[in-house]
Specification:
Order of helices and strands: EEHEEHHEEHEHEEEEHEEEEEH
CATH class of the largest domain: Alpha Beta
Distance between the termini: 33 Å
Helix content: 25-40%
Radius of gyration: 19 Å
CATH topology of the largest domain: D-amino Acid Aminotransferase, Chain A, domain 2
Strand content: 25-35%
Largest sheet: 10 strands, mixed
CATH superfamily of the largest domain: D-amino Acid Aminotransferase, subunit A, domain 2
Structural class: alpha+beta
Length: 273
């Protein structure tokens, strides 16, 4: 599968043809990245993604940091060069010892849930893996290939990561929430990438009076919960019908309410752009 899709991408401020994209910009050295969703030609939560990119660069000890105006300018230039097509845009700052940092922006392949998946839920499997310093968003090529292989060979939408101690941490590209007796639980921020959609779920729960606790969750506790959902750039808020055969209630009123309220937040964000 091609990494860079559509017509044009941006490398160090210059538009380039996607046919010239070189995977070394991602796979060699250290690549700090973000992925932003484009909906109706507009960038969703652009400011949040910018601040998280800068945080990842800080945690990585890198000194190159694009300014917000530069970040916004290049994103808009990329959209204009590709007719504002909807999809996912990846922003990469690549560091290799032999050259100056490379700053790239380009469209990537995406897989959004179908209406049926939102209605009936998705299946999840697990993989024992620890993402060191999870809030440092760095591209890990080998890890991504392993996860993609699992998803391609089994009927699952995503893969949950399990620590050697048996704790569920996060999905490969999403956060996970569990429901039990009208209360939500999610792994602690220090053990997972603090996702942007995750942040808005915390805010919604506070507004709606939904109890939400950060808690280490053991794999062998999965049977204790009645519901689960993942959150992220592509899935938004997506209910899970099962994890490795453990079944969950995808129609629970609280999950459905959060799905609707998150769509409302998206609408308000775009109205205020």
């Amino acid at each position: 599968m091609k990494e860079c899709i559509h017509n044009r991408y941006i490398l160090n401020g210059e538009l380039q043809d996607c046919n010239s994209f070189n995977p070394c910009y991602l796979d060699e050295g250290i690549s700090v990245y973000e992925v932003i969703r484009v909906i109706n030609g507009l960038l969703l939560f652009k400011e949040d993604h910018y601040h998280r990119l800068i945080s990842s660069l800080d945690l990585s000890g890198q000194h190159f940091k694009p300014g917000m105006s530069e970040f916004s300018h290049y994103l808009q230039q990329l959209l204009d060069a590709n007719d504002g097509v909807d999809g996912n845009v990846k922003i990469v700052v690549n560091f290799r010892s032999d050259i100056d940092p490379c700053f790239l922006l380009y469209y990537i392949p995406h897989r959004y849930p179908t209406d049926l998946e939102y209605e009936h839920g998705i299946s999840l499997s697990t993989l024992q893996f620890v993402r060191e310093e999870p809030n440092k968003k760095i591209w890990r090529s080998g890890f991504r290939k392993k996860v993609n292989g699992i998803i391609a060979s089994t009927p699952v939408y995503e893969v949950l990561l399990v620590s050697p101690e048996g704790f569920i941490t996060e999905a490969s590209k999403a956060n996970i929430f569990f429901l039990k007796e009208e209360t939500l639980f999610t792994p602690p921020a220090g053990t997972v990438l603090a996702g942007i959609t995750r942040k808005y779920i915390f805010s919604l729960c506070e507004q709606l009076g939904i109890p939400l606790y950060e808690k280490n969750i053991l794999y062998n506790e999965l049977d204790d919960f009645t519901g689960a959902f993942i959150t992220g750039t592509s899935p938004k808020v997506l209910p899970a019908k099962g994890i490795n055969g453990v079944r969950y209630d995808v129609g629970h009123q609280m999950i459905r309410q959060l799905m609707l309220e998150f769509e409302r937040i998206i609408g308000e964000y775009f109205r205020n752009c």
